[in-house]
User: Fold this.
Amino acid sequence: MMFRELAATSFITFHHHCISMQTFTNEDVTNYYDHTETHYRQFWKMEQSMGLHYGIWDNSTKTLAEAIVNTNRQLAVLGKITAADKVLDAGCGVGGSAIFLAKNFGCDVTGITLSERQVRTASGFASQNRVQHLARFERMDYTKTRFPDNHFDVVWAIESMQTATDKSLFFKEMQRILKPNGRILIADVFKEGNWKISETPVMQTMLNGWAMSDVLNLAELTNLAKSHNLALANEVNVTPQVRKSILKYWWFALAGMIGTKWYNLFHNATYFSKIHYKTGFAQYRGWKQGLWSYRLVVLGGHGGIG
Assistant:
């Protein structure tokens, strides 16, 4: 789901029940989002929510689209977003988070994505919502941006940080472009336990289907952030609140499987289009086995969050 940025392609073959451990190029990530956008439009209420991520359900949400927008709201509140913040949406997808922040907080937001198609879609959504003066979008790799040092107050990363194969490259670049006392706000899938991706086929199916290689657990994230002068300021495990999204994704995967198999009888579907439904089944099985959680995280830089 969610904007996935990676850097190299390699395969390690394991025998018996272990399957290939795979990483992805930037082109692979772009292809994933471009080739599956129709799935998100059809099943994930993309036109209403403008988001590709898991939705957080609570008493204020009645629909999937509302839950997806609520994830933006929950992270913004946890991260103490204000109108004065200059925000980078690092892995902006189709622009929903940036547009939400611009409309609801008056933030100046720059969204970056590897996909030129997503830039066009996000820019169109911003115009429709009349915030194009606050929310702008560019094609850029978040590990090698063109921004000057000390440029942003906030880096926003919903389901994007974990996509980097070498996550230290993400943190190194974010540390460079953040202002002193800036912060990184993350909503993403996190590893639970110490399983190895090469020995956990269900998680390989889940992550590889999203053009991802592996994910960190919270302790690993905290240690990596610390090495880049970033401290864990706040964290909330919202896995119970995304349960309905997990279940909906399973049902959509079932419908997608039927549609995909029928489509493939008459057409030559792309790789990610063919396997996308498998992620829906795998994310459910991985969740049931307690292999992953969904967390909101705030990291403060250069001495913490104010």
Summary: Residues 243-264 form the longest helix (22 residues). Residues 23 and 73 are 32 Å apart (CA to CA).
